Amino acid sequence: MESNFCFHCGDVCPSESIIEDGHPFCCQGCRQVYLLLNENNLCSYYDFSKTPGIKAKGRFISENFAFLDDEHIINDLVSFKSEERIHVMFDLPQVHCSSCVYLLENLHRINSGILQSNLNFQRKEIFIAFSPKDISLRGVVELLTFIGYEPAISLKSKTKKRVKPVRRKEIFRIAVAGFCFSNIMMLSFPEYLSSGNILEGGFKEAFSWLIFALSLPVLIFGAGGIFKSAFKGLRHKDINIDVPIALAIVITFGRSYYEIISGTGAGYLDSGSGIIFYMLVGRWFQSKTNEALSFDRDYRSYFPLGVTVSSQGKEDNIPVTRLKHGDKVVLRMGEMLPADAILKSPVAEFDYSFVTGENKPVILKSGALVYAGCRQLGGRIELEVVKEPSQSYITELWNNDVFSEGKKQRTSFVHPWSRYFTVVLLSIATATAIYWYNIDASKLFPAVTAVLIVACPCSLLLSATFTFGNMLRYFGRAKLFLKNAGVIEQMAAVNTIVLDKTGTVTEVEHNRVQYNGVELYPFEKRYVKQLVGQSAHVLSRSIFDSLDETIDKNDNLFEFKELPGHGIEAVIDNQKIRMGAYKFVFDDAALSDENDKIGSRVYVKMGDSTKGFYEFKNMYRKGFKRMVWSLIRKGYEVHLLSGDNDAEKRRLNKYFDGKLEMVFDVTPLGKLEYIKKLQKRGRKVLMVGDGLNDAGALKQADVSIAVSDQSARFTPASDGILDGSAVRKLSSFLHYARGAKKLIAIGFVLSILYNVVGLTFAVTANLSPLVAAILMPASSLSLIGLAAGLTYWYAKTKSKLR
Amino acid sequence: MSVIFVLIAVSLLLAGGFLLAFFWNVKSGQYDDDYTPSIRMLFDNEINDKNNNNNNNKTKNN
Q1: Whether residues A560 and A709 fall in one domain
Q2: What is the ipTM of this complex?
Q3: Is the pTM of this model over 0.80?
């Protein structure tokens, strides 16, 4: 059966497949890419993984990249420029396998103008050095696009300078802390055995001073981040979790230094630097989330960078930022309008799904106002700009207060816990002080400091960071990528879920096509397939895909005509066939309005006889029904918002016994207001959406998750990105998030047990460095192990994440 | 016994040297990408010869 799958992209080949070198291809686009690779001896591409290619979209228009010839844009994109060499970085969201690495790092073999290409697989970034004499920036982008890796270039990524990984400082901190910690441990060893008495003469003292010296880098550099954060917290009069930790560090090191200087003891520098090391590792572990994803996109990421403008009969490409009121914009098929404009061409068809969420294409006549963000479906059209890109209808959403406020800082539940912990700790310390003051004042100082050293909230922090870090990883494996650990806690607090309909609970790519009317004979279906095969319209393609018949090359097709926004017609085997809107097919204006309003229908007429119509229905994602039911049963309030008309309302109501609240015909701003209303009622809202039209609602919601069918697609700013195939697991995700608190609590209980043991030594003024040195790693390591075990067990058996 | 001081000094120097080497590695960007090189090393060095390529599109890579 292998022969039926495209050698390049692995898609099912249509029965009249294209064969090249004995390999089947699903379309000309895939074959072209194969030919190019074959020509350059790059066919190892197909050896590293099976069908590694990315389906050629067949809509590659070189003109789309004309803006890359603009000097300003080039200067903004490149990182280095000289006569012989230009360096540039691109995001390639399509990168997915080892074959991609092979092909992209061998670009120089396809075009010798490319001097070097270097891919970072995890960040999905490619570094390209090319010679401007042999190939232009536009040429590079076109080559990448041709082989299936269209770079994600946006106004945003160009205005924001590429952030260098700041990670390095964290790694240095861990390295320094680890180095000093292990050496201090080694030098402290004699102290553990017989309190260092096995050492002769000046050794004991010398070792102490060595430890002293080694601990300084840990305190100053290693713990620097903790001190900084604690100080920042204090300045804002907020006791964050770093304050008690910084206090514990200061006391541990202070007392140890005092002991070493006064020659009264060995101090607790081994335990102290150990805990700093573990905490740094924990933080790094938790913050190591998905680097390839961007969570903070706004509308600018969606808009094209350049646009074709016609003036005095000449066409010119300018950057969108220079678009002015009154400019005449030329849009070709599939291009997006970057500013509100008035249509100048007689008629045109637009896909508004991005802006409004409405699935059905809109047909507009000359003089109509067209909003930015829509996609053009027909041939070349002209429009006149009336508002600059930054003031258009869709960007107004970003002028809403929600976007300027920025999300409120929500404190983790770990913080109040650590506050209680600190209060209890301080009272124990006070009680110890009072006790020893009355019994033996000389032991007051050592006992009190020992209490503060042993019982630091570090173990609580450790169990939280490792639990959250692991959970983020398990979420990621189940294809929910969260921005940071804080989102898990917010997800746990959610009690209301708002779902967007188009693209979130329905599949965008697959519309169900249903034929109603007189049964068609196989040969008639063949005709229909041949006719729609001529058109690139979305609906035509859907009908084409739904028909299994094979096109017979002997059926001659003549006089093909496509009227944008109306339909298509042709003569096949002396029979005139018309397909399209009611008005077009039957020339009947009286009934047209009603029949064309119902939904997306394509009528078919052959010769003089009316056959019927193809109807398009939304396809709900697999498992959608079960997912919503399980959410309702768990006590969540579930709402469904849609920019679509309410054609589906009855069907959905039947599904869910009216337990699903539905609102149709909602504007983007309406969605935002809806969320606000829910929040006023005291609900904690999780918004799940996909398009630009949900951006406001996503921003307003307490937790926002953007759904994306391919990682390649842009998603609006959100707290998490969810793969389309995993939408049905939403209820498992929420269950897992709710488990976080329990799991951390278990770790907390364990750490309290250790603390009780440690404290009994401390309050009796018997805390030897040995006890501290055993307790510290034992508690840290067992907490880390416990966190790993618990999160795994909970993901697997309790939440059934997989 | 005072030879221990020498030993400790040597061990610290050695370990410090490794720490510096690690710093150098990180700074030079070796740890920026810890995945792609593992794929890269699997590729054969193919001879880029455009003339005899037409039928060997199934290059074995063992």
Answers
A1: no
A2: 0.75
A3: no
